[in-house]
Design goal:
There is one protein chain. With 496 residues, this protein is mostly beta strands. It has two domains: 376 residues, YVTN repeat-like/Quinoprotein amine dehydrogenase (Methylamine Dehydrogenase, Chain H, 7 Propeller), CATH 2.130.10.10; 82 residues, Immunoglobulin-like. Helices cover 3% and strands 43% of the residues. The strands form nine sheets. The chain has a four-stranded antiparallel sheet, with no helix packed on it. It starts with 8 loop residues before the first helix and ends with a strand. 49% of the residues are buried.
Length: 496
C-alpha cells in the first residue's frame, strides 16, 4: 500500500468540491458488517471519479455515527475507526489499534459508538507518515452521560510494512466535563496547521487546540455564546473556514449557533442563536460548498439559512418535510439526521434509522427549493446507521493577506507543551498562568503578534501559578512562553 504524500500548495488552493480524488474521497459505511450477505454488510461510497460509486463489501468492522476514515492522495484507504478500534487497509485490526476510549460505555457498543463526531483524523503537519486520531467516548454513563476526556492517538503509516501501527494510544489531551460529540476541525490560516474545537459542558466555554509540526498547542479557551448543558449533536466549519455552526439537542430543546471564525487567531465572534421550535430531535448540520448556506436537519424537516444575510434567523427556509417513506418498511422511517458535504459538492443526509437509503441535496449552493433536496434519493446495498464519515476540509489553503498566511509566525516556532494554561482568556491584560512545578527558575517572555518581545520576568522554582499584568499594552494577540532549563511551555492569550 502506498503511503500518503503531502499535497502541494497549488492543490491546497482548490476547494474540496472541485477535487475528484484524495484523502477524503472514500466513505466507509455499513451496519451489521459481521453478517455475510445483504441487506447486512459493509458499504463503500467512492468519489474518485467525481461521481459516487456505491458498492457492497464484506467488512469486519461495524459502524454507527462515530466513524472516521482517511485515504492517501491517490484514494487508497489507509485506516478507519468506529471509536472502538482502528482497522488497517486490509480490514484487520491495526497493530496496537484495539482498546480505544477505555470506558464502560465503550464496552456497551462493540459495534461502534452511536453519537456523531466522536472522532476525527488529522494528518501531522510535520510528518507525512503520521496521523493524529482525536477521539472521545462517554465516561460517565450512569448519571450525566458526560465525556470526561479528550484523547489523541498517533498512527505511523511507515510501520508494519506500510499497513501502519498505533504508536501512541489514549493519551489524554484534556480532562474536563465535555460535550458528548461535536468534535471538528479547521485549517489554520497558514494552510498547514489545524484548529481542533471542543465545547465544555455546563458552560459557555470552547476549547481550541492548534496542531502544528511541533506538537499540540493549547488549549485556547474562549467564553462565548449560549450556556449549554451536556449536549450531543453535530458541528461544522464552512468550507472557506469563515463560519462555524454548532447544532445540538440540549435537553429537550434543539438549537443552533452560528459564529464567525478567525482562522488566524482561532477566535469565534458574532454569535447568532436560533432556537428550533418544531420539537426537533435531529442534530445534523452542513455548509454548502460556497459557504453561503447552512443546512440543518430537524428529524422531519430540513432547513436552509443564509449565513451572509443581515438577519440570519429570518433567512430560514424549509427545504424538505419528511414524505412518510420507510426503508424497507415500518418502523424504519427515512427521517433526517446527520449531514456531510461530499467531494462531489453535494450534501448527503443520514436517515436516523438503519435503512437502505440516504437523502441527497443536489444543488446546495442554490437558495430555497432550488437546492433540490431529493428524499431517499440514494439507494444503498445494505443497511446503514448514519455512518457518514467525520471529514474536515482537508484542502483548505492559506488565507492570503491575513497576518498569518505564511509559515513564519511565532506560534509555529514555539516548542509545544499543552500543560501551560491561562485564565481568564480573553482578558483585560491581567491574567494568571498555570503550569506544572519545575525545579529550576523559569523565564517568562511575552511576544506580540509580530514576534516582538514585550515582557520578560522570572518565574520562581516549584511555583505553579504566575500572575501577569500587561494592562499597559494595547489589545491584541500575545504569546506567552516560559523557559526552564529542560522544558518550554507556551500559550496564546487575547487581550481585549
Amino acid at each position: 500500500m502506498k503511503r500518503i504524500r503531502i499535497l502541494g500548495f497549488l492543490m491546497l488552493m482548490f476547494p474540496v468540491m472541485l477535487l475528484s480524488q484524495g484523502i477524503s474521497n472514500l466513505w466507509l459505511m455499513g451496519y451489521g458488517g459481521n453478517q455475510v450477505s445483504p441487506p447486512f454488510g459493509g458499504i463503500d461510497m467512492d468519489f474518485i471519479t467525481g461521481t459516487p460509486v456505491i458498492s457492497y463489501v464484506t467488512r469486519s468492522m461495524e459502524m454507527s455515527r462515530a466513524v472516521s476514515n482517511i485515504s492517501d492522495a491517490n484514494g487508497n484507504i489507509l485506516f478507519y475507526t468506529n471509536g472502538i478500534y482502528i482497522s488497517d487497509a486490509t480490514g484487520d485490526t491495526m497493530q496496537n489499534g484495539s482498546g480505544l476510549n477505555p470506558s464502560v460505555y465503550t464496552s456497551w457498543y462493540p459495534d461502534g459508538l452511536p453519537p456523531p463526531q466522536m472522532n476525527m483524523i488529522i494528518p501531522d503537519p510535520g510528518n507525512p507518515d503520521l496521523y493524529y486520531l482525536f477521539h472521545t467516548t462517554v465516561d460517565d454513563p450512569f448519571s450525566a452521560l458526560l465525556t470526561r476526556y479528550l484523547y489523541y492517538s498517533i498512527v505511523d503509516m511507515s510501520q508494519n510494512s506500510g499497513l501502519g501501527a498505533v504508536t501512541t494510544k489514549n493519551q489524554i489531551l484534556i480532562t474536563d466535563s465535555l460535550s458528548t460529540s461535536n468534535l471538528t476541525a479547521c485549517k489554520h490560516a497558514n494552510g498547514r496547521d489545524w484548529w481542533l474545537i471542543k465545547h465544555k459542558a455546563f458552560s459557555t466555554l470552547y476549547y481550541l487546540f492548534l496542531i502544528t509540526p511541533n506538537g499540540i498547542l493549547g488549549p485556547l479557551i474562549q467564553n462565548i455564546g449560549k450556556y449549554r448543558i451536556n449536549d450531543a449533536g453535530q458541528a461544522a466549519f464552512s468550507p472557506n473556514g469563515e463560519y462555524f455552526a454548532y447544532y445540538n439537542l440540549d435537553g429537550q430543546n434543539a438549537d443552533i449557533e452560528i459564529f464567525n471564525f478567525d482562522r488566524c487567531s482561532g477566535l469565534l465572534s458574532n454569535p447568532v442563536h436560533i432556537a428550533m421550535l418544531d420539537s426537533a430531535t435531529g442534530v445534523g448540520v452542513a455548509f454548502s460548498p460556497n459557504s453561503q448556506f447552512l443546512f440543518v436537519s430537524s428529524t422531519k424537516y430540513v432547513y436552509q439559512f443564509d449565513v451572509t444575510a443581515t438577519n440570519i434567523p429570518s433567512s430560514q427556509t424549509t427545504v424538505a418535510v419528511w414524505d412518510g417513506f420507510y426503508s424497507p418498511n415500518p418502523p424504519l422511517a427515512t427521517l433526517f439526521n446527520i449531514l456531510q458535504l461530499a467531494p462531489d459538492g453535494k450534501i448527503y443526509i443520514g436517515t436516523g434509522n438503519s435503512t437502505l437509503h440516504l437523502h441527497l441535496i443536489n444543488q446546495p449552493d442554490s437558495a430555497g427549493l432550488a437546492c433540490d433536496l431529493v428524499q431517499h434519493g440514494v439507494p444503498l446495498p445494505a443497511y446503514n446507521f448514519n455512518s457518514l464519515p467525520n471529514h474536515p476540509n482537508y484542502f483548505l489553503g492559506a488565507l492570503a493577506g491575513s497576518p498569518c498566511d505564511t509559515l513564519t509566525s511565532l506560534a509555529t516556532e514555539l516548542i509545544i507543551n499543552h500543560k501551560l494554561n491561562v485564565f481568564p482568556n480573553p482578558n483585560n491584560g491581567y491574567f494568571t498562568l498555570g503550569f506544572n512545578p519545575q525545579k529550576e527558575v523559569g523565564i517568562l517572555e511575552i511576544f506580540d503578534a509580530m514576534g516582538r518581545r514585550v515582557y520578560i520576568e522570572k518565574v520562581a522554582q516549584w511555583s505553579q501559578y504566575k500572575k501577569v499584568d500587561i494592562t499597559n499594552l494595547p489589545p491584541g494577540i500575545y504569546y506567552c512562553r516560559i523557559n526552564w532549563e529542560e522544558d518550554v511551555a507556551s500559550v496564546k492569550i487575547v487581550k481585549e
